[in-house]
């Protein structure tokens, strides 16, 4: 059943007149009458009684009217959703996030969800290396992460991150490199290399630059456990400076040096055409510019 015929039928019902309905639909009256006739033939019953005062629904027409209205309404809803999906206002977005942007990204994502409620967002806390793998494999749409040098990925700068030392309350003042031996006596806590290969490489580079070999006495599978152990006085740890907001009873000391800095950005695949991703990238770009 053609939607055009149903819309013609509903127009006649609303205006109760073939001539006025034809004018509203920009049709000639014979053309409109023909469309109504085709619909009646397909249904096998008459829809209107025509008289001097216009067009009145037959008993069959009254019965058919609610179904016709429902069909047209559903078709309009489907079309609207399809247009929203094509323009990136509806769909799904898989977002990766890292520790360094926990004070920035959640607010941006919340604002985006409020503006585009038709987009369902799945958020995953992943290392930059894992985000890179998933982006390349098509299992992630965008990621807030250490900007990788991987072909096929585009990026937008979010922040410049800095390597830092997380110190327990017992260490009020630390002078580097003079106090390296004191730190090694206490011992270093570290995220397992497999869980944070980017951070591990950053620490390796900085330590080589300083000619220092840290004495790692304990490892953990997540940064939160490392930070909790530092706060408890178990040891010290190399962390991104963005971890400072997670530490209440410890000090974060930013480190200097060429190997102490890296860029964190929003990263996405540039080969796949995804209107939802494009809309999110544009939103983040505007949010960062406005912020």
UniProtKB/TrEMBL annotation:
The keyword Transcription applies. Keywords: DNA-binding, Transcription, Transcription regulation. GO terms for cellular component: protein-DNA complex. The keyword Flavoprotein does not apply. Residues 1-58 form the HTH lysR-type domain. InterPro entries: LysR_HTH_N, LysR_subst-bd, WH-like_DNA-bd_sf, WH_DNA-bd_sf. Pfam families: HTH_1 (PF00126), LysR_substrate (PF03466). GO terms for molecular function: DNA binding; DNA-binding transcription factor activity. It comes from the Bacteria. Belongs to the LysR transcriptional regulatory family. This is DNA-binding transcriptional LysR family regulator.
């Amino acid at each position: 059943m053609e939607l055009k015929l149903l819309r013609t039928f509903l127009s006649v019902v609303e205006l109760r007149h073939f001539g006025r309905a034809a004018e509203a639909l920009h049709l000639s009256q014979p053309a409109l009458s023909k469309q109504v006739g085709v619909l009646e033939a397909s249904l096998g019953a008459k829809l209107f009684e025509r008289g001097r005062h216009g067009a009145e629904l037959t008993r069959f027409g009254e019965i058919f009217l609610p179904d016709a209205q429902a069909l047209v309404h559903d078709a309009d809803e489907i079309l609207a959703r399809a247009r929203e999906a094509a323009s990136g206002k509806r769909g799904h977005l898989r977002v990766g996030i890292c520790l360094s942007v926990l004070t920035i990204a959640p607010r941006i994502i919340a604002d985006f969800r409020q503006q585009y409620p038709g987009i369902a967002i799945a958020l995953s806390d992943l290392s930059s290396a894992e985000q890179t793998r998933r982006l390349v494999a098509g299992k992630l749409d965008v990621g807030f992460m250490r900007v990788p040098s991987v072909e096929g990925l585009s990026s937008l700068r979010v922040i410049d991150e800095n390597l830092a030392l997380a110190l327990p309350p017992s260490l009020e003042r630390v002078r580097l490199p003079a106090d390296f031996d004191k730190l090694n006596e206490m011992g270093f806590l570290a995220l397992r290399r497999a869980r944070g290969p980017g951070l591990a490489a950053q620490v390796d580079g900085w330590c080589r630059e300083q000619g220092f070999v840290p004495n790692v006495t304990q490892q953990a599978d997540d940064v939160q456990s490392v930070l909790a152990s530092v706060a408890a006085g178990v040891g010290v740890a190399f962390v991104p400076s963005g971890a400072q907001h997670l530490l209440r009873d410890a000090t974060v000391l930013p480190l200097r040096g060429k190997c102490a800095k890296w860029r964190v950005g929003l990263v996405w695949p540039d080969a796949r055409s995804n209107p939802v991703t494009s809309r999110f990238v544009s939103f983040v770009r505007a949010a960062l510019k406005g912020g």
